[in-house]
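REQUEST FORM: STRUCTURE PREDICTION
Request ID: SP-0412
Submitted by: Lab K.M.
Chain count: 1
Length (residues): 187
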Amino acid sequence: MKISGVDIRPGNIIEYEGGIWRAVKIQHTQPGKGGAYMQVEMKNLIDGRKNNVRFRSAETVERVRLDTTDFQFLFKDGDALTFMDKLTYEQITLDAGILGDAAAFLQDGMDVVMELYDERPISVQLPDTIEAMIVEADAVVKGQTASSSYKPAILDNGVRVMVPPHIGAGTRIVVDVYSQEYVRRAD
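STATUS: Completed
RESULT:
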């Protein structure tokens, strides 16, 4: 399906210069002189390269539809991640690099959605948020509590996030998997 270059949205999968790319960030720009364009930061889903491209409204790109299948994460062995198809119980092992920074948030038994292109897995979508335990949090510096300041904390998976001053070690919080930001305290 062809779409205009200015209709690209984050998360769209497009075919560009013979590769399959995911739009990561977009910025619509209208310069004072000349026509408007969409600045798109893209990541190649096959080899992981990144690229910044300007698309004008007159340009069209081919939007790709990927097949999606529900999988369950089983275990990690070094850099190899093993998933199981929830319908056929077939297991597949992928390199952790396919998930990027989100791989740290995988939990045993987690349900994920695998995106396939020509029957080949090219992307794994985790839930948008997960619950995690804070194992270490810095102390609040006196005088900083008046402003909306955040302090660094380390989660049980080793990821460092910024949390509000009232959150301490041993607290379960909800974290956005892709931006790696504190969302709220877990129930």
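NOTES: The chain has three domains: 2-63, 67-125, 129-185.
Reviewed by: T.R.
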